């Protein structure tokens, strides 16, 4: 019973994360300002990272955990670069 509940909870979380990714993609495509698009991109990479983590938990493979770590690092670096670009107009000084 406990295994079934855990499997259903993980599957439900994956469905909700996929819906969150769809909403974030909508915000990226539809956002009226650049700041809205950056926030949509943040939400998209966080939801993608969490989707990788839940899939890694479901399958038991460690490769997905490493992939989630790479997504987190690249997403953070991209957010910092976009924020610096929006504030100053240049990324490299």
Automatic annotation (TrEMBL):
Membrane topology: Multi-pass membrane protein
InterPro entries: MrpF/PhaF-like
Gene Ontology CC: one annotated term: plasma membrane
Transmembrane feature ranges: 6-26, 38-57, 63-87
Compartments where found: Cell membrane
Domain of life where this protein originates: Bacteria
Keywords (A to Z) from UniProt: Cell membrane, Membrane, Transmembrane, Transmembrane helix, Transport
GO MF annotations in UniProt: sodium:proton antiporter activity
Family designation: Belongs to the CPA3 antiporters (TC 2.A.63) subunit F family.
Alphabetized PANTHER family for the sequence: NA(+)/H(+) ANTIPORTER SUBUNIT F1, NA(+)_H(+) ANTIPORTER SUBUNIT F
Name of the protein this chain belongs to: Multisubunit potassium/proton antiporter PhaF subunit
């Amino acid at each position: 019973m406990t295994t079934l509940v855990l499997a259903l909870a993980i599957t439900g979380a994956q469905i909700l994360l996929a819906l969150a990714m769809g909403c974030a993609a909508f915000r990226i495509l539809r956002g009226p300002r650049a700041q809205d698009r950056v926030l949509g991109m943040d939400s998209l990479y966080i939801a993608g990272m969490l989707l990788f983590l839940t899939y890694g938990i479901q399958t038991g493979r460690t490769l997905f955990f490493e992939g989630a770590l790479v997504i987190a690092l690249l997403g953070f670096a991209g957010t910092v670069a976009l924020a610096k670009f929006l504030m100053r107009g240049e990324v490299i000084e």
